[in-house]
Specification:
This protein has 1477 residues and is an alpha+beta fold. It contains 59 helices and 32 strands. The chain is globular, with a radius of gyration of 41 Å.
Length: 1477
């Protein structure tokens, strides 16, 4: 085509050019003017051409962009709709995709996130239609969807979209492009918002590495990355790391932007926040001053940011105890806000409140009241009457009146506060409890003791309910009650309540607190009143010891002004229930703080806890407890893995999202092998007590804290008991010294014991541990223990009781090709939710997401899952579970049946009926599993488009019901009762999701240093042993193996003990899953060379993968040779891959992967072969009712290793192995609950050759016994991979001629008549001779001998029908003579009249006419069920004949009649001839 002449006038082109220029210069008004003129010109023309339409489209899009940038959403919507109309008119897909991109962004701005995602998905579909290779446009759309999900707070979905975008970008741009770094940045932001700080840092480090190698050193994006990392470190309280990163960011911005740029302000403010959190108030003030200088330079004096900075500086001064400076800066902030805001603005009231708090601290009560009254006036005029701010102000005013002994006014204020809080917060809120307590104080001071006791009791009631039995504030209320009793001279009661208060404070690790000293003094006074002077003396001694330590600590702190300032304001820094707390966010410090209503009880309460001397002592005591715990500490297991399993596309992921209270996804992608809820190993740990989500690291940390806390409390109690009998005031210093030395000695002894463990053993070549003589530095070991202790110490101070249990949720992929990969991840110590589609019949074929029917039925898929799950459990133990008050015994593991697609069911009765039908079908097929299965009758509606209130209520009810069922089982599981040593939790913390190596000098934490330097994705057991030894966590071989097995059960690691004699450990399970998925996922053809595409296609056609293909799919993972070899070895160990060896070393290596074979490959053609009858190998139905596909495929791999030939041919659920020695092939097929065997060999037209070949094949079968090899392989696989069934009897089976059921072969004796088989079917019990047994097990009566010659061989080739009644009569006589009287008691059927004799011949010849045969024999026979159950026509036809025979009208004459009706005269004539003979 030649160049097309443009129809756009020059004037129009000029207007459009001017508009573009103005738009690029952000002169929106001028640009819109030019666009409007251009559109007017277009409207004035009569004829429109494609050029004009193209121009109109561009103008509409550009105008939309201008309005979008201006956030004029209505106008933007108008012009994007015009652009869409024009794109439809032009029929140009790229323009429609462009429009959808724009409209998606607009919808995001409107808050219509679902609409935005919908538009992006449409856009992706168009882009893929234009470019099936998923270019950058598609990647950008995935990234945009990720941004939308992130804005919604759907962080899991956001990460998933970012990963999809990242995958495309990596394939197109490589791994070192700034766009890749941008994606890592977005993922880091999401992880930070999810509180997954280590993951966030990992993403930022990846981004930083790319930026540093591709951008200039002073690029703002590098500074922004440092800033983001600093924000995460700040969230983790890793303040030094945060400061380091902020300084890096600041250095770049100062160099690139200068020292007065507004963007520098945020960095200074953030650094100030960190310094304030560290108690480095001078440094914090310096940063705020730097921020203030820039603000004053570039902004107006009255800007709010300046007011915020003044306010933040005031808070710092108040924390330092510099109250005058604090008031000064609050007033500066107030002055700006008064000039910029209305005088009644709530911000003004907040500032008045903060100033009032300081006046109260200074004892300036009148000034404080004035400020509180100003604050109250504004609150009352601008806020609702019942807001807590007003209640808090009344409360604070009441406390001031109480200080002034104005008790009536105080009670009045408290009553006003109480009225508001009861209305706004309810009668069970801690703030209400505080008000009741303070009213009790006021009444007590007035002598109104009954009123005081009533108020205290109300306070206690709420505190018990809201705070627990041992909260320190309860001790203060007990003290108030005791004081009331003392004022009434009821000293016994007073002592009782004071003792309760003392016990609480002591239990809260406040043994040296001034409140405790005061309680001891009061108790001493009461004992004196009761003339119990010995007890009084003991109380005073304890009080004196506390005051002595306080005096020592104060003396030490007075040497440092900075420490003094910190301790003076310590109480202010700790928020209480009635404080408007200071939020040290990355933007600003919230300055509004209202005074603590119980301030008269708390001023000294918090000051003491900041004393450095006591902190050091407490830390030393905790370290001693930690060392004791390492030796013998443990607690009950609290985590179990819960797996969602079931067929493909039944809604497992959707049910898990509903169950974990996540939002449903409209276009849910299929699960790949296994998902852990949101990402592969992006953990969803579910708290069974209240259905909240937790991080596994947090649970490990809680468990460590629980164990150490128990040892710490034991230690404190021991010291207290010693102090009661020995303590005197004069020897307080000496006693402290002795205890200190004892603690150090204990730590040394514990470390020596640990080093003895460490040096005692190592692995030997036999896989056991043996003594070694290598010494371990004891001081180094103590240092390592101290580092671990410091990691856990902050959580030790946060004492909370956590008896909760947790479930780690997994979602298993239902695709059949993934079954073989499940073995490494299954665990007998897990719970399982087995999901099915209630809208499908159990005998229907499984439907894929693409609405394609698979060859397997839902029943077969459920059999696959149940057998795999139940078989993996080693234990034969049972458990008692109580559900709905029923005490029922269950076998392990527990499988809970759950249904999906409840939206497709019209009523509840229909759903229940279908559920019952489903469970009964399972039990009838697999009765052995009945004790493992709990039928929940729960049917979830997971339709993402149905979010009505009724549906939401139903979902919540289903989730709660499933939650209660799960909780009942978990509380009874033996696995949850096992004691887990503290060492295991620490090792789990180390091994948990290791971060990648980083070139950055800063490492986020001590644990991450170990992860980066010592933990690898794949580790040998020797490496794990060395790691445990180096950190004092090794206890011996049995404990190490048990620990790894425990983590394997939880899905934290993969522990394979069969590699390299010792075993290997995969620490990054998600990484391994992705690699498995990359190798075996053959859904979409990869882009690449024609050779790669050819290898890809060959894998689906032959079930064989080349090394070139594996190298190709593993390339993005950048694996070194050792790791790659370990991966292949691991997959071979689990029979996921099997090497096909060839005689020629030059040939390319292939791997055997039978499960990848497509179901539509050509079937096995045996027309040119002699084929034996089928011999079956398997188990009794009561023992193993089903052999899973995973076992079958592993059996094929195991046989390949045994026979080691490259001529294996694969067909759907069938493999043909050529055995050169016997010159024949062995065919191994999957036949539901059995393995079917046949042997075959090429036909020969030459009778002499045929005789020789037949003799050689029979000799091979009898001597080499390949069926025994297959039997032994199957037995080994079952024992190893399905230990639940270990020891079950495996047997040979043949099909009974009479009833067509399979029956096992029992050898009677060694006589020539042992080939007579008795059918084990109780309704049959026929004695019959089996050609299958003759072909495989027994030597033939008519066996061909070498001396018989070709004529005899040719005679043996005659069919049994040609031999006629002679052979049958001979066999009948043999039966009678061999069994004697047995023949008299058992019916030997008349074969000439019994149609069963001819079933095998009919089934082998009927071919495609089997359906016609079924229809004519019995129209009630379900041919679809038979078709789903069997893949071979022979088996289908045989099953038809068997089902027909069960009727009362099955005769040979009827069979002949039907065969002639369907025009199969060839079969009918053969049978007729046999009958006549």
């Amino acid at each position: 085509m030649g160049n097309k002449q443009s129809t756009i006038s020059k004037d129009l082109k000029l207007l459009y050019s001017k508009a573009l220029t103005s738009q690029e210069a952000h002169d929106d008004e001028q640009s819109l003017s030019y666009y409007a003129q251009a559109l007017n010109q277009i409207e004035s023309t009569d004829d429109t051409t494609e050029d004009i339409d193209q121009l109109q489209y561009n103008i509409f899009i550009n105008i939309c962009d201008i309005y979008t940038r201006q956030h004029k959403i209505n106008q933007a919507n108008i012009f994007i709709d015009k652009a869409i109309q024009m794109a439809n008119k032009l029929q140009q897909h790229d323009k429609m995709a462009e429009c959808l991109d724009r409209r998606s962004y607009i919808r995001k701005l409107e808050g219509d996130y679902d609409g935005a995602v919908l538009d992006h998905n449409k856009c992706i579909a168009i882009k893929l239609k234009m470019d099936k290779n998923e270019g950058l446009n598609v990647s950008n759309s995935f990234g945009n969807i990720g941004n939308i999900y992130a804005a919604q707070g759907n962080y899991d979905d956001a990460v998933y979209m970012y990963e999809k975008s990242l995958q495309i970008r990596l394939s197109l741009l490589g791994d070192n492009h700034p766009t890749i770094a941008d994606t890592y940045q977005n993922m880091g932001v999401v992880y930070k918002n999810q509180d997954k700080y280590d993951d966030a840092v990992c993403m930022y480090q990846k981004s930083l590495k790319i930026f540093l190698s591709t951008l200039d050193d002073d690029d703002p994006r590098i500074a922004n990355t440092y800033n983001n990392m600093a924000n995460v470190y700040s969230k983790q309280s890793k303040y030094e790391d945060a400061i380091y990163m902020y300084e890096k960011s600041l250095q770049i911005n100062l160099s690139a932007l200068g020292d007065s740029h507004p963007s520098i302000i945020d960095t200074y403010d953030n650094m100030a926040i960190i310094y304030a959190a560290q108690g480095k108030y001078d440094e914090a003030l310096y940063m705020y001053e730097k921020s203030l200088q820039i603000n004053l330079l570039v902004l107006d004096d009255n800007r709010f940011t300046i007011a915020d900075t003044y306010k933040n500086m005031a808070v710092i001064y108040r924390q330092q105890g510099k109250y005058n400076d604090a008031v000064c800066f609050f007033e500066k902030s107030l002055q700006i806000n008064l000039s910029a805001l209305d005088n009644n603005h709530p911000t003004i009231a907040d500032t008045y409140n903060n100033i009032a708090v300081i006046y109260k601290k200074q004892g300036k009560y009148d000034n404080a009241l004035t400020m509180f009254e100003k604050s109250l006036k504004i609150y009352c005029s601008t806020l609702d009457d019942n807001l807590p701010n007003i209640a808090n102000t009344y409360h604070n005013m009441g406390s001031i009146y109480e200080y002034q002994s104005k008790y009536d006014e105080a009670v009045c204020m408290y009553e006003k506060s109480l009225k508001i809080n009861l209305s706004a917060l309810g009668d069970n809120h801690p703030s209400v409890a505080d008000t009741y307590h303070n009213m009790g104080d006021a009444y007590r001071n007035q002598g109104k003791y009954d009123d005081a006791l009533f108020m205290y009791e109300e306070s206690l009631r709420i505190k018990f309910s809201a705070l627990g039995d041992n909260h320190p504030s309860i001790a203060i209320t007990y003290e108030g009650i005791g004081t009331v009793h003392a004022n009434r001279e009821k000293y016994d009661n007073a002592i009782k309540f004071h003792e309760r208060a003392i016990a609480i404070l002591a239990d809260a690790n406040l043994q040296n607190h001034p409140d405790l000293a005061r309680l001891y003094d009061s108790s001493a006074t009461y004992y004196d009143k009761l003339n119990q002077h010995d007890y009084a003396t003991t109380m005073r001694q304890r009080s004196s010891l506390i005051r002595y330590h306080l005096q020592q600590a104060n003396t030490t702190n007075q040497t440092s002004a900075n420490v003094t300032n910190q301790t003076t304001a310590a109480c202010d820094a700790i928020p209480t229930e009635n404080d408007l707390t200071e939020d040290l966010s990355n933007q600003q410090i919230e300055s509004q703080q209202i005074d603590n209503p119980s301030d008269n009880h708390c001023d000294d309460y918090h000051t003491h806890t900041q004393q450095s001397h006591e902190s050091a002592l407490k830390e030393k005591q905790y370290f001693s407890a930690y060392m004791q715990a390492l030796q013998q500490g443990s607690c009950k297991n609290k985590v179990i893995r819960a797996m969602y399993a079931g067929p493909e596309y039944v809604g497992k992921s959707s049910i898990m999202r509903v169950f974990t209270q996540q939002q449903l996804v409209h276009f849910q992608n299929p699960t790949q092998i296994a998902d852990q809820s949101d990402k592969m190993v992006h953990l969803k740990v579910y708290k069974i007590k209240d259905r909240t989500m937790y991080h596994l690291d947090q649970i490990w940390e809680n468990n460590v804290r629980e164990i150490v806390q128990e040892k710490y409390e034991d230690q404190i109690k021991s010291q207290q008991q010693a102090s009661v009998s020995q303590l005197t005031v004069g020897f307080a210093d000496e006693e402290f010294s002795i205890n200190h030395q004892h603690s150090n000695a204990a730590i040394q002894a514990q470390s020596i014991a640990m080093s003895q463990h460490t040096t005692a053993t190592t692995f030997t070549s036999s896989g056991n541990f043996a003594p070694t003589t290598s010494p371990v530095d004891n001081s180094s070991l103590i240092h390592q223990c101290q580092d671990f202790f410091q990691y856990f110490y902050p959580s030790l101070l946060n004492k909370t009781n956590d008896d909760s249990q947790y479930a780690k949720l997994w979602d298993f992929g239902g695709h059949s090709i993934y079954h073989v990969t499940h073995q490494p991840f299954l665990s007998g110590n897990s719970m399982y939710f087995l999901v099915f589609n209630i809208n499908q019949n159990i005998h229907d074929r499984v439907q894929t997401r693409e609405d394609i029917s698979l060859s397997t039925t839902y029943l077969q898929s459920m059999q696959e899952w149940l057998t795999s799950i139940i078989g993996c459990n080693v234990s034969q133990d049972n458990m008692i579970a109580t559900i709905d008050n029923d005490h029922v015994e269950y076998s392990l593991p527990i499988v809970i049946l759950v249904a999906s697609h409840g939206d497709c069911i019209t009523n509840k009765q229909e759903g229940t009926a279908r559920f019952i039908e489903f469970e009964q079908a399972i039990i009838s097929k697999m009765p052995r599993y009945k004790s493992n299965i709990y039928s929940s009758r729960i049917i979830f509606n997971c339709n993402p488009y149905d979010n009505s209130d009724v549906t939401k209520t139903e979902r919540e009810q289903c989730s709660l019901r499933l939650h209660e069922i799960m909780k009942s089982f978990v509380q009874s599981l033996p696995f949850m009762c096992n004691p887990i040593p503290i060492r295991w939790y620490i090792m789990a913390t180390i091994l948990h999701t290791p971060t990648e190596r980083s070139n950055d000098a800063v490492v986020s934490s001590f644990i991450n240093q170990i992860r980066v330097t010592r933990v690898h994705k794949i580790m040998t057991i020797q490496q794990v042993q060395s790691l445990a030894k180096d950190f004092g966590l090794y206890e011996g071989d049995d404990k190490l193996i048990a620990m790894l097995s425990y983590l394997h059960d939880l899905g934290e690691i993969i522990f394979c003990r069969k590699i390299d004699e010792y075993g290997i450990i995969v620490t990054d399970v998600d990484w391994l899953l992705r690699i498995f998925r990359a190798i075996i996922q053959l859904h979409d053809c990869p882009s690449g060379s024609l050779q790669i595409k050819s290898l890809y296609q060959k894998a689906g056609q032959t079930g064989k993968i080349s090394t070139k293909y594996i190298e190709y799919v593993l390339a993005p993972y950048e694996l070194d040779d050792v790791t790659k070899k370990s991966i292949i070895t691991l997959m071979e160990t689990y029979d996921i891959l099997c090497t096909i060896k060839t005689d020629n070393e030059q040939d390319e290596c292939y791997y055997f992967v039978p499960y990848l074979l497509r179901s539509d490959v050509q079937p096995l053609d045996l027309t040119r072969y002699h084929v034996s009858e089928t011999l079956y190998i398997g188990y009794e139905h009561k023992d193993i009712p089903y052999i899973p596909d995973g076992i079958y495929y592993c059996l094929l791999s195991s046989c390949l290793k045994e026979w080691n030939n490259s001529k294996v041919e694969l067909y759907y659920q069938c493999a043909k192995f050529y055995l050169a020695r016997g010159r024949h092939d062995i065919i191994i097929k999957k036949s539901n609950s059995h393995i079917a065997l046949q042997y075959c060999y090429r036909k020969s037209d030459n009778p002499k050759s045929a005789s020789v070949i037949n003799s050689a094949v029979q000799t091979s079968i009898y001597k080499d016994r390949p069926h025994d090899i297959v039997k032994q392989k199957l037995s080994s696989l079952i024992n190893e991979r399905m230990p639940k069934f270990k020891g079950s009897s495996i047997r040979y089976y043949v099909r009974c001629h009479e009833c067509s059921e399979l029956t096992f072969i029992e050898t009677k004796n060694e006589s020539q008549n042992e080939n007579l088989i008795e059918c084990q079917n109780k309704s049959c019990n026929t004695l019959f001779e089996s050609q299958s047994a003759n072909d495989w097990i027994y030597e033939h009566v008519n066996e061909v001998h070498e001396n018989d010659g070709p004529q005899a061989a040719a005679t043996c080739e005659l069919s049994s029908y040609d031999q006629g009644e002679t052979v049958a009569a001979s066999q009948h006589k043999t039966l009678l003579s061999f069994y004697g009287t047995l023949a008299d008691s058992k019916q030997i059927p008349n074969r000439s009249k019994n149609p069963g004799k001819y079933f095998c011949d009919v089934a082998s010849k009927i071919n495609k006419d089997w359906k016609k045969l079924a229809a004519k024999l019995d129209h009630n026979i379900d041919i679809y069920e038979i078709e789903a159950d069997y893949s071979r026509v022979y088996d289908r036809a045989h099953d038809v004949l068997h089902k027909w025979r069960q009727s009362n009208h099955a005769t040979t004459d009827r069979l002949l009649e039907v065969l002639r009706m369907i025009q199969r005269l060839d079969i009918a004539d053969t049978i007729s001839d046999a009958v006549n003979k």
